[in-house]
From TrEMBL, chain B:
Family matches, as PROSITE patterns: ABC_TM1
Main location: membrane
Domain of life assignment: Bacteria
Organism expressing this protein natively: Nocardioides furvisabuli
Keywords: Cell inner membrane, Cell membrane, Membrane, Transmembrane, Transmembrane helix, Transport
Residue ranges of the TM segments: 95-115, 127-150, 171-193, 199-221, 228-250
Places the protein is found: Cell inner membrane; Cell membrane
PANTHER family recorded: INNER MEMBRANE ABC TRANSPORTER PERMEASE PROTEIN YDCV (PTHR43357:SF4)
Sequence ranges assigned to domain ABC transmembrane type-1 in this UniProt record: 60-248
Family: Belongs to the binding-protein-dependent transport system permease family.
One protein family per Pfam: BPD_transp_1
Matching SUPFAM superfamilies: MetI-like
Membrane topology: Multi-pass membrane protein
Protein name: ABC transporter permease subunit
Length: 383, 275
């Protein structure tokens, strides 16, 4: 297997107002899996297509094993792609599909089919060599597509939302299969997905928003410490508390809260607090310590928990996650406080529309005036 | 109810095809058939014998060559145009469609007369001129048939093949064309039929030198007065297309399965693709 690196790639579609990719960079080590997540239209698939050579980037480099392949056509890039739809070749049977790349590489028919059977065993489709691909279920078709991609034996495997057309159960079984395949072959994988659980299968994830990489870290770290407000909104479940950081303390309508040293330095900053780290106190006006009075707007059950949406006294939107039995009704007033008032909170620079904070490092001058996130979205993004 | 309607439609379609052919079939085997007899008094093959001596075998051969030549020219050009239209690879599909429709909108007689003069001045051989003109007439059929097939087939198939190591040529030959092969066969058949059955262009541009089966039939029908000979020629002219259509229908049946269009991703314009 090989390393794969996409370096400072820009891409603009014809007639588009803004570039789809704005200096995006991703590096995948040999045998590693990196996932790319982001909202719709963030440039995820564009990034993958540029890496695969299916789109010509405006500028930037694509390196496979350190060799710049940006000017090479797809077939000479030593990588292969598995798309959202299986795209099986219906004039070939199951083994014929998997043997497609070995045949192109010069293997004889028998040898290629023997190779195909090996990969079909790996994806648990042994004995289905001669089946008509149209007769397979969606999950089986996607397994054939995976086997076909693996049988190409390329340096890197690019997965473009490979399981998003499958239902939840099938998706879970494909995730298990991917783990098995990785244990067996250790392929270098760059996977684009909008499913955050799927993204967590990778060693690390790249969060791409508006064509820019906002964060590249393991998913657990991204959940714990989102690098920007936009990342927090993508993950969902965060309450944003605007204020200013001075000497390691966040000053805001809630009072003064200690912040983690690794977060934003002095200046305008937003505290990002997980909704499960907040709780409600009954008396809205008499609480002690940092907190804010708020009125319940609505409640939304999620399994055994309930998400309560409130509006703070400073008109800021808030979300608190509680056990389902709590007596919280729309219109009721509470005081929202932190469960652990002494723990340092995670603060990021305030780059929201209207704030005076600088944009991300390395951003060209013209783009610093563009909002990092869509100002029309609610404060808490989709989970 | 639906089944009844479908059966009635099928019966009507068969009648539509068979009724005009029935008297021709009878005439072709008639030695003597005069009014008011319902059927011929004597049966025989004299009509066929006379048709053969009038040059029917050679005329059929010329028609075959003409049909094949038109199919050979119009099919690949139609498939290429169909790919552009079906996969929306052009920003001006209306202009392409308008260009395709021009030969069908203009009266063939006028087109043939006008182009005949041009082609004679250029010095092209009659057969080449006829093939070129008939190909222009056939391309709209081949292009539209192919465009429909491409529209039902994902443009990503080509990208997928490339990502598995195929060159653009290999991707088209080994993956894309097999995916639309049923429609290509139909397109080729339509082009063949345009060449096989043409009368006006062949007569005018061929200058009477290129005697194909329809030209021979036309001459016999207007001059000989021998109904049995004319019927034999008509049957010989009609039979090959009927056989071809039947064979093609059986071959195409069940082939050309593709993903439903609503499940397919948006096509990527050619200028965005890596060559």
């Amino acid at each position: 297997m090989s390393t794969l690196e996409v370096r400072d790639v820009w891409h603009r579609y014809p007639d588009a107002d803004a570039p789809a990719l704005r200096g995006a960079s991703v590096a995948v080590a040999d045998g590693e899996m990196v996932s790319v997540v982001g909202p719709s239209g963030s440039g995820k698939s564009t990034l993958l297509r540029v890496a695969a050579g299916l789109l010509r980037s405006t500028s930037g480099e694509v390196l496979v094993d350190g060799r710049d392949v940006a000017d090479q056509p797809t077939e000479r890039r030593d990588l292969t792609v598995m798309f959202q739809h299986p795209l099986l070749f219906e004039h070939l049977d199951v083994a014929g599909n998997v043997a497609f790349a070995p045949r192109l590489a010069g293997s004889g028919r028998r040898e290629a089919r023997r190779c195909a059977r090996r990969y079909l065993r790996l994806v648990h489709l042994e004995g289905m060599d001669s089946r008509d691909v149209a007769s397979l279920s969606g999950g089986q078709q996607q397994r054939v597509a995976l086997a076909r991609a693996l049988a190409a034996e390329r340096g890197a495997l690019l997965l473009d939302e490979p399981f998003s057309s499958l239902d939840r159960e099938l998706r879970a079984s494909m995730h298990d299969l991917l783990v098995e395949v990785r244990a067996a072959l250790a392929p270098t994988i760059l996977m684009v997905t909008h499913d955050l659980d799927e993204a967590a299968l990778a060693e690390s994830s790249v969060v791409l928003i508006d064509g820019r990489v906002h964060q590249h870290a393991p998913m657990t770290e991204i959940y714990r410490r989102p690098a920007t407000v936009a990342v927090a909104r993508l993950l969902g479940g965060f309450t944003e508390i605007a204020g200013t950081v001075r000497d390691g303390v966040h000053h805001c309508a809630w009072g003064r809260l200690p912040v983690a040293a690794e977060g934003a330095g002095d200046g305008a900053a937003v505290l990002l607090v997980r909704r499960e780290a907040l709780r409600l106190e009954v008396d809205a006006d008499l609480g002690a310590g940092p907190g804010i009075g708020a009125r319940v707007v609505r409640r939304r059950p999620i399994g055994t928990r309930v998400v309560v949406s409130l509006v703070g006294d400073d008109d800021s939107p808030l979300e608190v996650e509680l056990p389902v039995g709590e007596d919280v009704r729309p219109g009721a007033r509470f005081r929202v406080v932190l469960s652990d008032r002494r723990a340092p909170q995670w603060a990021v620079r305030d780059e929201r529309p209207g704030s005076a904070a600088p944009a991300l490092a390395g951003e060209p001058e013209e783009d610093t005036r563009r909002p990092v996130v869509d100002g029309g979205r609610s404060s808490v993004g989709p989970a | 109810m639906t089944r009844v309607v479908r059966t009635a439609g099928l019966v009507l379609a068969l009648l539509w095809l068979v009724v005009p052919l029935a008297p021709v079939l009878v005439w072709a085997g008639a030695e003597r058939w005069s009014f008011p007899d319902l059927l011929p008094r004597d049966w025989g093959v004299s009509g066929w014998r006379e048709a053969a001596s009038a040059g029917l075998p050679l005329a059929l051969l010329r028609s075959l060559v003409l049909g094949l030549a038109v199919a050979a020219v119009a099919t690949p050009l139609g498939v290429m145009t169909g790919r552009v239209l079906g996969w929306r690879l052009t920003g001006r599909p209306r202009m392409v469609v308008a260009l395709l429709l021009v030969p069908l909108v203009l009266p063939p007689f006028a087109v043939a007369m006008g182009l005949d003069v041009v082609l004679i001045r250029v010095g092209l051989h009659e057969l080449v001129s006829v093939v070129l003109l008939l190909s222009v007439v056939a391309i709209p059929y081949t292009a539209y048939t192919s465009a429909t097939a491409f529209a039902r087939t994902s443009p990503e198939l080509e990208a997928q093949a490339r990502a598995l190591g195929a060159t653009p040529r290999q991707a088209r030959l080994r993956v894309v064309l097999p995916a639309v092969r049923g429609s290509i066969l139909v397109a080729a058949l339509l082009a063949f039929l345009v060449g096989w059955s043409d009368y006006v262009v062949t007569l005018l541009v061929g200058g009477g030198q290129l005697v194909t089966a329809p030209v021979l039939l036309g001459a016999a029908a207007s001059g000989s007065g021998n109904d049995a000979t004319v019927a034999a020629m008509a049957l010989a002219t009609v039979a090959p297309p009927v056989v071809l259509v039947t064979v093609a229908a059986l071959r195409v049946r069940g082939s050309g399965r593709t993903a439903p269009a609503d499940r397919l991703p948006e096509p990527v314009p050619d200028h965005e693709r890596m060559r």
